Amino acid sequence: MRIEDFPEKIQPYLIPKVAGDLVYRCLGCGEEYDITELLYTCPDCGSVLLLVDRAFDRLKQIPSVLWRQIFDYRRMLNISSFKGIYRYYEFIGPVIPIDAIVYLGEGHTSMVEANGHLQDMVGARFCFKNDGQNPSASFKDRGMASAMSYINFLLRSKRLSEVLAVCASTGDTSASAALYAAYLQPDVKSAVVLPHKKVTAQQLAQPLGNGAAVFEIPGVFDDCMKVVEVLSEQYNVALLNSKNAWRILGQESFSYEIAQDFDYDMRNKAVIVPIGNAGNITAIMSGFLKFLEVGIIDCLPKIIGVQSTHANPVYKYYLEPNQEMRTFVPVKVRSSVAQAAMIGNPVSMPRVIQLVKAYNEKAGKQVVFVVEVEEQAIMDWELIANRNGHFACTQGGESLAGLIEANERGIVDSGDTVVLDATAHALKFAGFQEMYFEDKFPPAFEISPRQSLKNAPELVKAQGLDIFPSPENPLKGEAFDQFVQQTAKTIADKLNLKPRQL
Nearest 5°: CA angle at 110, between 106 and 113? Predict the structure, then answer.
Protein backbone atom coordinates (compact mmCIF):
# COMPACT_ATOMS: atom_id res chain seq x y z
CA MET A 1 0.00 0.00 0.00
CA ARG A 2 1.38 3.42 -0.96
CA ILE A 3 1.92 6.17 1.60
CA GLU A 4 -0.55 8.53 -0.09
CA ASP A 5 -3.31 5.95 0.30
CA PHE A 6 -3.15 6.05 4.11
CA PRO A 7 -5.16 8.51 6.26
CA GLU A 8 -3.44 11.91 6.28
CA LYS A 9 -3.00 11.98 10.06
CA ILE A 10 -1.06 8.69 9.93
CA GLN A 11 1.18 9.43 6.95
CA PRO A 12 3.82 11.48 8.87
CA TYR A 13 4.38 8.60 11.30
CA LEU A 14 4.64 5.64 8.93
CA ILE A 15 8.27 6.22 7.91
CA PRO A 16 10.03 7.13 11.16
CA LYS A 17 13.02 9.43 11.34
CA VAL A 18 16.23 8.63 13.19
CA ALA A 19 15.78 9.80 16.77
CA GLY A 20 16.44 8.84 20.36
CA ASP A 21 19.48 8.90 22.60
CA LEU A 22 20.58 5.31 23.19
CA VAL A 23 23.35 4.47 25.64
CA TYR A 24 24.63 1.36 27.34
CA ARG A 25 23.76 1.46 31.04
CA CYS A 26 25.46 -0.86 33.52
CA LEU A 27 23.13 -2.85 35.75
CA GLY A 28 25.78 -2.92 38.45
CA CYS A 29 27.19 0.58 38.88
CA GLY A 30 24.82 2.58 36.66
CA GLU A 31 27.61 3.98 34.48
CA GLU A 32 26.66 4.87 30.90
CA TYR A 33 28.66 4.30 27.70
CA ASP A 34 28.52 5.42 24.09
CA ILE A 35 26.88 2.91 21.73
CA THR A 36 29.48 3.51 19.02
CA GLU A 37 31.65 1.05 20.95
CA LEU A 38 31.11 -2.71 20.85
CA LEU A 39 30.47 -3.28 24.55
CA TYR A 40 28.96 -6.31 26.28
CA THR A 41 29.91 -5.78 29.92
CA CYS A 42 30.74 -2.71 31.98
CA PRO A 43 34.43 -1.72 31.61
CA ASP A 44 34.39 -0.50 35.22
CA CYS A 45 32.62 -3.22 37.22
CA GLY A 46 32.08 -6.06 34.72
CA SER A 47 28.28 -6.23 35.06
CA VAL A 48 25.98 -6.74 32.08
CA LEU A 49 24.55 -3.81 30.15
CA LEU A 50 21.13 -2.71 29.02
CA LEU A 51 20.39 -0.33 26.18
CA VAL A 52 18.47 2.68 27.45
CA ASP A 53 16.89 5.44 25.41
CA ARG A 54 17.47 8.58 27.45
CA ALA A 55 14.96 10.37 25.21
CA PHE A 56 12.26 7.72 25.73
CA ASP A 57 9.80 10.28 27.11
CA ARG A 58 9.38 11.73 23.61
CA LEU A 59 7.35 8.61 22.77
CA LYS A 60 4.82 9.54 25.45
CA GLN A 61 3.93 12.68 23.49
CA ILE A 62 2.10 10.49 20.96
CA PRO A 63 -1.33 9.40 22.30
CA SER A 64 -1.69 5.67 22.92
CA VAL A 65 -4.59 5.42 20.45
CA LEU A 66 -2.39 6.92 17.75
CA TRP A 67 0.46 4.50 18.54
CA ARG A 68 -1.87 1.57 18.00
CA GLN A 69 -2.99 3.02 14.68
CA ILE A 70 0.62 3.60 13.61
CA PHE A 71 1.53 -0.04 14.17
CA ASP A 72 -1.71 -1.35 12.64
CA TYR A 73 -1.31 0.77 9.51
CA ARG A 74 2.44 0.17 9.29
CA ARG A 75 1.81 -3.54 8.84
CA MET A 76 0.29 -2.70 5.43
CA LEU A 77 3.45 -1.03 4.12
CA ASN A 78 5.32 -2.77 1.30
CA ILE A 79 8.69 -1.67 2.64
CA SER A 80 10.92 -4.53 3.73
CA SER A 81 12.51 -2.60 6.61
CA PHE A 82 9.13 -2.53 8.39
CA LYS A 83 7.94 -6.03 7.58
CA GLY A 84 9.83 -7.56 10.49
CA ILE A 85 10.68 -6.51 14.02
CA TYR A 86 11.22 -2.89 12.95
CA ARG A 87 7.50 -2.37 12.61
CA TYR A 88 8.17 -1.20 16.18
CA TYR A 89 11.17 0.87 15.10
CA GLU A 90 10.82 3.59 17.74
CA PHE A 91 11.03 0.97 20.53
CA ILE A 92 13.79 -1.20 19.07
CA GLY A 93 16.33 0.76 17.04
CA PRO A 94 15.45 4.45 16.64
CA VAL A 95 19.10 5.43 16.05
CA ILE A 96 19.59 3.02 13.14
CA PRO A 97 19.00 4.52 9.67
CA ILE A 98 16.25 2.73 7.81
CA ASP A 99 18.54 1.74 4.94
CA ALA A 100 20.81 -0.12 7.40
CA ILE A 101 18.03 -2.39 8.67
CA VAL A 102 18.62 -6.07 7.91
CA TYR A 103 15.44 -8.02 7.19
CA LEU A 104 15.53 -11.73 6.33
CA GLY A 105 11.90 -12.56 7.07
CA GLU A 106 12.03 -12.61 10.86
CA GLY A 107 9.23 -11.66 13.22
CA HIS A 108 5.44 -11.75 13.15
CA THR A 109 5.29 -15.49 13.65
CA SER A 110 1.88 -17.11 13.88
CA MET A 111 -0.11 -17.57 17.06
CA VAL A 112 -2.12 -20.78 16.71
CA GLU A 113 -4.82 -21.59 19.24
CA ALA A 114 -4.89 -25.19 20.43
CA ASN A 115 -7.84 -27.28 19.36
CA GLY A 116 -10.69 -27.93 21.78
CA HIS A 117 -9.54 -31.46 22.58
CA LEU A 118 -6.07 -30.32 23.67
CA GLN A 119 -7.39 -27.34 25.62
CA ASP A 120 -9.78 -29.64 27.49
CA MET A 121 -6.92 -32.02 28.22
CA VAL A 122 -4.74 -29.20 29.56
CA GLY A 123 -7.56 -27.34 31.30
CA ALA A 124 -6.75 -23.90 29.89
CA ARG A 125 -7.25 -21.74 26.83
CA PHE A 126 -3.89 -21.40 25.12
CA CYS A 127 -2.04 -20.99 21.86
CA PHE A 128 1.49 -21.54 20.59
CA LYS A 129 3.47 -18.66 19.15
CA ASN A 130 5.55 -20.51 16.59
CA ASP A 131 8.93 -18.80 16.53
CA GLY A 132 10.32 -21.72 14.57
CA GLN A 133 8.83 -19.92 11.55
CA ASN A 134 11.69 -17.41 11.64
CA PRO A 135 14.25 -17.70 8.79
CA SER A 136 16.83 -19.79 10.68
CA ALA A 137 13.93 -21.62 12.38
CA SER A 138 14.22 -20.13 15.87
CA PHE A 139 13.41 -17.06 17.96
CA LYS A 140 17.09 -16.06 17.92
CA ASP A 141 16.52 -14.27 14.60
CA ARG A 142 14.63 -11.49 16.37
CA GLY A 143 17.69 -10.49 18.36
CA MET A 144 20.08 -11.22 15.53
CA ALA A 145 18.21 -8.89 13.16
CA SER A 146 18.66 -6.14 15.74
CA ALA A 147 22.33 -6.86 16.48
CA MET A 148 23.23 -7.21 12.81
CA SER A 149 21.30 -4.09 11.79
CA TYR A 150 23.35 -2.20 14.35
CA ILE A 151 26.60 -3.71 13.04
CA ASN A 152 25.50 -2.88 9.48
CA PHE A 153 24.94 0.71 10.60
CA LEU A 154 28.47 0.85 12.08
CA LEU A 155 29.91 -0.62 8.88
CA ARG A 156 28.08 1.85 6.64
CA SER A 157 29.15 4.78 8.78
CA LYS A 158 32.80 3.55 8.63
CA ARG A 159 32.99 3.06 12.40
CA LEU A 160 33.75 -0.64 11.81
CA SER A 161 35.32 -2.72 9.08
CA GLU A 162 35.77 -6.46 8.52
CA VAL A 163 33.78 -7.73 11.48
CA LEU A 164 34.21 -11.24 12.87
CA ALA A 165 31.01 -12.18 14.69
CA VAL A 166 31.36 -14.91 17.34
CA CYS A 167 28.94 -16.74 19.59
CA ALA A 168 28.61 -19.73 21.87
CA SER A 169 25.57 -21.85 21.20
CA THR A 170 23.48 -24.89 21.95
CA GLY A 171 22.47 -24.76 18.28
CA ASP A 172 19.96 -22.00 17.57
CA THR A 173 22.18 -18.96 18.19
CA SER A 174 24.92 -20.33 15.94
CA ALA A 175 22.44 -21.00 13.13
CA SER A 176 21.03 -17.49 13.38
CA ALA A 177 24.40 -15.74 13.69
CA ALA A 178 25.83 -17.62 10.70
CA LEU A 179 22.78 -16.82 8.56
CA TYR A 180 22.77 -13.08 9.27
CA ALA A 181 26.56 -12.81 8.99
CA ALA A 182 26.43 -14.54 5.62
CA TYR A 183 23.92 -11.95 4.41
CA LEU A 184 26.40 -9.17 5.26
CA GLN A 185 29.48 -10.83 3.79
CA PRO A 186 32.18 -10.00 2.77
CA ASP A 187 32.21 -7.35 5.50
CA VAL A 188 31.09 -9.81 8.19
CA LYS A 189 32.33 -13.32 8.84
CA SER A 190 31.24 -15.63 11.63
CA ALA A 191 32.71 -18.20 14.00
CA VAL A 192 30.70 -20.32 16.42
CA VAL A 193 31.75 -22.38 19.44
CA LEU A 194 29.59 -25.41 20.26
CA PRO A 195 29.71 -28.09 22.97
CA HIS A 196 30.95 -31.31 21.37
CA LYS A 197 28.15 -33.79 20.62
CA LYS A 198 25.58 -31.57 22.39
CA VAL A 199 24.03 -30.05 19.24
CA THR A 200 21.60 -31.88 16.97
CA ALA A 201 22.73 -32.80 13.47
CA GLN A 202 20.11 -30.49 11.99
CA GLN A 203 21.33 -27.53 14.05
CA LEU A 204 24.98 -28.26 13.24
CA ALA A 205 24.18 -28.31 9.52
CA GLN A 206 22.96 -24.70 9.59
CA PRO A 207 26.17 -22.78 10.47
CA LEU A 208 28.17 -25.17 8.31
CA GLY A 209 25.87 -24.48 5.38
CA ASN A 210 26.11 -20.71 5.89
CA GLY A 211 29.90 -20.83 5.82
CA ALA A 212 30.73 -20.16 9.48
CA ALA A 213 33.91 -21.40 11.10
CA VAL A 214 32.56 -24.02 13.52
CA PHE A 215 34.51 -25.11 16.58
CA GLU A 216 33.37 -27.87 18.93
CA ILE A 217 34.93 -28.02 22.38
CA PRO A 218 34.58 -30.44 25.32
CA GLY A 219 32.01 -29.52 27.96
CA VAL A 220 28.62 -27.80 27.91
CA PHE A 221 27.27 -24.44 26.76
CA ASP A 222 28.52 -22.60 29.86
CA ASP A 223 32.09 -23.63 28.95
CA CYS A 224 31.61 -22.37 25.39
CA MET A 225 30.27 -19.08 26.75
CA LYS A 226 33.39 -18.52 28.82
CA VAL A 227 35.56 -19.06 25.74
CA VAL A 228 33.71 -16.51 23.59
CA GLU A 229 33.65 -14.04 26.49
CA VAL A 230 37.46 -14.18 26.58
CA LEU A 231 37.55 -13.76 22.79
CA SER A 232 35.34 -10.67 23.00
CA GLU A 233 37.43 -9.20 25.85
CA GLN A 234 40.87 -9.84 24.34
CA TYR A 235 40.26 -9.61 20.59
CA ASN A 236 38.46 -7.34 18.14
CA VAL A 237 35.32 -9.43 17.59
CA ALA A 238 31.57 -8.85 17.83
CA LEU A 239 29.88 -11.06 20.44
CA LEU A 240 26.42 -12.19 19.34
CA ASN A 241 25.15 -14.00 22.43
CA SER A 242 22.37 -12.46 24.52
CA LYS A 243 25.06 -10.70 26.54
CA ASN A 244 24.88 -8.34 23.56
CA ALA A 245 22.27 -5.75 24.60
CA TRP A 246 21.16 -5.25 20.98
CA ARG A 247 20.00 -8.86 20.97
CA ILE A 248 17.66 -8.14 23.88
CA LEU A 249 16.18 -5.12 22.08
CA GLY A 250 15.27 -7.22 19.05
CA GLN A 251 13.71 -9.96 21.14
CA GLU A 252 11.37 -7.42 22.74
CA SER A 253 9.42 -7.63 19.47
CA PHE A 254 7.90 -10.89 20.77
CA SER A 255 6.00 -8.83 23.36
CA TYR A 256 4.95 -6.16 20.89
CA GLU A 257 3.56 -8.73 18.46
CA ILE A 258 1.54 -10.46 21.17
CA ALA A 259 0.08 -7.13 22.27
CA GLN A 260 -0.85 -6.23 18.71
CA ASP A 261 -2.34 -9.66 17.99
CA PHE A 262 -4.64 -9.23 21.01
CA ASP A 263 -5.58 -5.70 19.88
CA TYR A 264 -3.46 -4.38 22.76
CA ASP A 265 -5.77 -5.87 25.40
CA MET A 266 -3.53 -7.72 27.85
CA ARG A 267 -6.13 -8.33 30.53
CA ASN A 268 -6.27 -11.98 31.63
CA LYS A 269 -3.29 -12.91 29.50
CA ALA A 270 -0.21 -14.97 30.40
CA VAL A 271 2.99 -15.72 28.50
CA ILE A 272 5.00 -18.87 29.18
CA VAL A 273 8.60 -19.03 28.00
CA PRO A 274 11.61 -21.32 28.56
CA ILE A 275 14.36 -19.48 30.44
CA GLY A 276 17.60 -20.88 29.02
CA ASN A 277 20.20 -18.11 28.96
CA ALA A 278 17.49 -15.73 30.27
CA GLY A 279 17.76 -13.27 27.40
CA ASN A 280 14.30 -13.99 26.04
CA ILE A 281 12.36 -13.73 29.29
CA THR A 282 14.09 -10.44 30.12
CA ALA A 283 13.35 -9.08 26.65
CA ILE A 284 9.68 -10.04 26.97
CA MET A 285 9.36 -8.30 30.32
CA SER A 286 11.18 -5.23 29.04
CA GLY A 287 8.95 -5.01 25.97
CA PHE A 288 5.69 -5.15 27.92
CA LEU A 289 7.02 -2.58 30.40
CA LYS A 290 7.80 -0.14 27.58
CA PHE A 291 4.36 -0.53 26.01
CA LEU A 292 2.80 0.01 29.45
CA GLU A 293 4.85 3.14 30.10
CA VAL A 294 3.72 4.73 26.83
CA GLY A 295 0.12 3.60 27.38
CA ILE A 296 -0.15 1.28 24.38
CA ILE A 297 -1.28 -1.40 26.83
CA ASP A 298 -2.92 -0.62 30.17
CA CYS A 299 -1.91 -3.69 32.19
CA LEU A 300 0.85 -6.30 32.29
CA PRO A 301 0.30 -9.98 31.45
CA LYS A 302 1.61 -12.72 33.71
CA ILE A 303 5.04 -14.01 32.75
CA ILE A 304 5.88 -17.62 33.61
CA GLY A 305 9.43 -18.83 33.09
CA VAL A 306 10.04 -22.58 32.79
CA GLN A 307 13.13 -24.62 33.57
CA SER A 308 13.87 -28.30 33.41
CA THR A 309 14.87 -30.06 36.62
CA HIS A 310 18.10 -30.76 34.72
CA ALA A 311 18.96 -27.03 34.38
CA ASN A 312 17.11 -24.98 37.00
CA PRO A 313 19.26 -22.22 38.59
CA VAL A 314 16.63 -19.48 38.17
CA TYR A 315 13.89 -21.67 39.64
CA LYS A 316 16.09 -22.39 42.64
CA TYR A 317 16.88 -18.70 43.08
CA TYR A 318 13.20 -17.79 43.36
CA LEU A 319 12.42 -20.61 45.80
CA GLU A 320 13.54 -18.18 48.51
CA PRO A 321 10.49 -15.93 49.14
CA ASN A 322 12.53 -13.16 50.78
CA GLN A 323 14.29 -11.26 48.00
CA GLU A 324 16.88 -9.92 50.46
CA MET A 325 17.92 -13.50 51.26
CA ARG A 326 18.21 -14.74 47.67
CA THR A 327 21.61 -15.80 46.35
CA PHE A 328 22.16 -16.92 42.80
CA VAL A 329 24.09 -20.18 42.52
CA PRO A 330 24.90 -21.69 39.09
CA VAL A 331 24.05 -25.37 38.68
CA LYS A 332 25.71 -28.23 36.91
CA VAL A 333 23.40 -29.11 34.03
CA ARG A 334 22.36 -32.61 33.10
CA SER A 335 21.26 -33.99 29.74
CA SER A 336 18.10 -32.31 28.46
CA VAL A 337 15.89 -32.59 25.40
CA ALA A 338 15.23 -28.85 25.75
CA GLN A 339 18.76 -28.16 24.56
CA ALA A 340 18.34 -24.40 24.16
CA ALA A 341 17.47 -24.24 27.86
CA MET A 342 20.35 -26.46 29.01
CA ILE A 343 22.24 -23.64 30.70
CA GLY A 344 23.36 -23.64 34.33
CA ASN A 345 24.69 -20.07 34.56
CA PRO A 346 22.53 -17.69 32.47
CA VAL A 347 24.46 -14.59 31.43
CA SER A 348 21.30 -12.47 31.67
CA MET A 349 20.59 -13.38 35.31
CA PRO A 350 21.33 -9.80 36.51
CA ARG A 351 18.75 -8.55 34.00
CA VAL A 352 16.25 -11.13 35.29
CA ILE A 353 16.63 -9.96 38.87
CA GLN A 354 16.18 -6.29 38.01
CA LEU A 355 13.32 -6.74 35.54
CA VAL A 356 11.31 -9.21 37.63
CA LYS A 357 11.39 -6.70 40.50
CA ALA A 358 10.38 -3.79 38.24
CA TYR A 359 7.67 -5.84 36.50
CA ASN A 360 6.02 -6.97 39.72
CA GLU A 361 6.19 -3.44 41.14
CA LYS A 362 4.50 -1.98 38.06
CA ALA A 363 1.81 -4.66 38.22
CA GLY A 364 1.22 -3.98 41.91
CA LYS A 365 1.47 -7.68 42.75
CA GLN A 366 3.42 -10.78 41.80
CA VAL A 367 2.82 -11.57 38.14
CA VAL A 368 6.19 -13.15 37.28
CA PHE A 369 6.64 -16.78 38.26
CA VAL A 370 9.18 -19.55 37.65
CA VAL A 371 8.25 -23.22 37.52
CA GLU A 372 10.27 -26.37 36.89
CA VAL A 373 9.27 -29.49 34.95
CA GLU A 374 10.57 -33.01 34.46
CA GLU A 375 12.26 -34.12 31.24
CA GLN A 376 9.60 -36.79 30.84
CA ALA A 377 6.88 -34.13 30.85
CA ILE A 378 8.72 -32.01 28.28
CA MET A 379 8.93 -34.85 25.79
CA ASP A 380 5.44 -36.22 26.44
CA TRP A 381 3.72 -32.85 26.05
CA GLU A 382 5.66 -31.97 22.91
CA LEU A 383 4.38 -35.14 21.28
CA ILE A 384 0.84 -34.63 22.58
CA ALA A 385 0.82 -31.07 21.19
CA ASN A 386 2.00 -32.23 17.80
CA ARG A 387 -0.59 -35.01 17.73
CA ASN A 388 -3.12 -32.21 18.03
CA GLY A 389 -1.99 -30.22 15.01
CA HIS A 390 1.03 -28.24 16.19
CA PHE A 391 4.74 -28.44 15.33
CA ALA A 392 6.14 -27.62 18.75
CA CYS A 393 9.84 -28.12 19.43
CA THR A 394 11.13 -29.58 22.68
CA GLN A 395 11.20 -26.05 24.14
CA GLY A 396 7.55 -25.75 23.10
CA GLY A 397 6.97 -28.99 25.00
CA GLU A 398 8.73 -27.41 27.96
CA SER A 399 6.36 -24.42 27.76
CA LEU A 400 3.31 -26.69 27.64
CA ALA A 401 4.60 -28.75 30.56
CA GLY A 402 5.10 -25.43 32.34
CA LEU A 403 1.45 -24.54 31.71
CA ILE A 404 0.39 -27.83 33.31
CA GLU A 405 2.54 -27.04 36.35
CA ALA A 406 1.29 -23.43 36.52
CA ASN A 407 -2.28 -24.71 36.39
CA GLU A 408 -1.67 -27.11 39.26
CA ARG A 409 -0.11 -24.33 41.35
CA GLY A 410 -3.01 -21.95 40.67
CA ILE A 411 -0.81 -19.43 38.85
CA VAL A 412 -3.02 -19.52 35.75
CA ASP A 413 -6.69 -18.65 36.26
CA SER A 414 -9.60 -20.27 34.42
CA GLY A 415 -10.27 -16.99 32.62
CA ASP A 416 -6.70 -16.55 31.37
CA THR A 417 -5.62 -16.90 27.75
CA VAL A 418 -2.05 -18.23 27.64
CA VAL A 419 0.60 -17.80 24.94
CA LEU A 420 3.24 -20.55 24.87
CA ASP A 421 6.60 -19.86 23.28
CA ALA A 422 7.68 -22.60 20.87
CA THR A 423 11.16 -21.21 20.35
CA ALA A 424 12.31 -23.28 17.37
CA HIS A 425 11.12 -25.58 14.60
CA ALA A 426 10.31 -29.14 15.62
CA LEU A 427 12.46 -30.56 12.81
CA LYS A 428 15.57 -29.26 14.58
CA PHE A 429 14.89 -31.78 17.33
CA ALA A 430 13.57 -34.68 15.26
CA GLY A 431 16.34 -36.87 16.68
CA PHE A 432 14.78 -36.73 20.15
CA GLN A 433 11.43 -37.81 18.72
CA GLU A 434 13.18 -40.73 17.02
CA MET A 435 14.88 -41.70 20.30
CA TYR A 436 11.51 -41.57 22.05
CA PHE A 437 9.75 -43.76 19.47
CA GLU A 438 12.59 -46.29 19.46
CA ASP A 439 13.12 -46.20 23.27
CA LYS A 440 16.77 -45.24 22.85
CA PHE A 441 17.15 -42.39 25.34
CA PRO A 442 20.34 -42.78 27.42
CA PRO A 443 19.59 -43.13 31.15
CA ALA A 444 20.88 -39.60 31.84
CA PHE A 445 17.79 -38.10 30.17
CA GLU A 446 15.41 -39.92 32.56
CA ILE A 447 12.83 -40.43 29.81
CA SER A 448 10.82 -43.60 29.21
CA PRO A 449 8.44 -43.52 26.24
CA ARG A 450 4.72 -43.94 26.82
CA GLN A 451 3.43 -46.72 24.59
CA SER A 452 0.45 -44.61 23.56
CA LEU A 453 2.75 -41.93 22.16
CA LYS A 454 5.17 -44.16 20.26
CA ASN A 455 4.92 -44.34 16.49
CA ALA A 456 6.86 -46.02 13.70
CA PRO A 457 6.49 -46.81 10.01
CA GLU A 458 5.26 -50.28 9.10
CA LEU A 459 6.47 -52.08 5.99
CA VAL A 460 3.52 -53.53 4.06
CA LYS A 461 4.17 -56.50 1.77
CA ALA A 462 0.84 -58.01 0.91
CA GLN A 463 0.54 -61.78 1.19
CA GLY A 464 -0.11 -63.80 -1.91
CA LEU A 465 2.21 -61.78 -4.13
CA ASP A 466 5.32 -63.29 -5.67
CA ILE A 467 6.90 -60.12 -7.01
CA PHE A 468 7.01 -56.50 -5.83
CA PRO A 469 7.97 -53.28 -7.65
CA SER A 470 11.36 -51.65 -7.18
CA PRO A 471 12.99 -48.55 -8.69
CA GLU A 472 15.04 -50.82 -10.97
CA ASN A 473 12.17 -53.17 -11.89
CA PRO A 474 8.76 -51.42 -11.98
CA LEU A 475 5.74 -53.68 -12.40
CA LYS A 476 3.39 -53.45 -15.38
CA GLY A 477 0.11 -54.89 -16.57
CA GLU A 478 -1.68 -57.55 -14.52
CA ALA A 479 1.22 -57.94 -12.04
CA PHE A 480 1.01 -54.22 -11.19
CA ASP A 481 -2.78 -54.29 -10.85
CA GLN A 482 -2.56 -57.25 -8.47
CA PHE A 483 0.10 -55.48 -6.40
CA VAL A 484 -2.03 -52.32 -6.07
CA GLN A 485 -5.23 -54.20 -5.18
CA GLN A 486 -3.62 -56.54 -2.65
CA THR A 487 -1.61 -53.74 -1.01
CA ALA A 488 -4.68 -51.50 -0.71
CA LYS A 489 -6.67 -54.39 0.84
CA THR A 490 -3.90 -55.15 3.33
CA ILE A 491 -3.75 -51.50 4.45
CA ALA A 492 -7.55 -51.29 4.63
CA ASP A 493 -7.63 -54.39 6.87
CA LYS A 494 -4.98 -52.91 9.17
CA LEU A 495 -7.05 -49.69 9.47
CA ASN A 496 -10.33 -51.61 9.93
CA LEU A 497 -11.87 -49.82 6.95
CA LYS A 498 -15.30 -50.88 5.71
CA PRO A 499 -15.97 -51.25 1.95
CA ARG A 500 -18.14 -48.62 0.34
CA GLN A 501 -21.78 -49.57 -0.11
CA LEU A 502 -22.67 -49.18 -3.78
Answer: 160
C-alpha torsion angle, residues 306, 309, 311, 313 (rounded to 10) = 70
Same domain, 208 and 237: yes
Structural domains in the chain (count): 3
pTM above the 0.70 mark?
A: yes
Q: Is the peptide bond before 274 cis (omega within 30 degrees of 0)?
A: no
The predicted model gives 247-267 an average pLDDT of 97
Which residues in 205-216 are b (16+ Cβ under 10 Å) and which e? ebbeebebebee
Give, in degrees to the nearest 5, the angle at Cα 477 between 471 and 478: 110
CATH of the domain at 326: 3.40.50.1100
pLDDT of 277 reads 87
31 occurs within a structural domain: no
Quote the domain boundaries for residue 208: 139-246
Q: Phi and psi dihedrals of 363, rounded to 5?
A: -75, -20
CB 19 within 8 A of CB 55: yes
User: 237 and 276: one domain?
Assistant: no
Neighbouring CB atoms inside 10 A of 3's CB total 12
Same domain for 410 and 442, yes or no, is yes
Instruction: Identify whether residues 447 and 479 lie together within a single domain.
Output: no
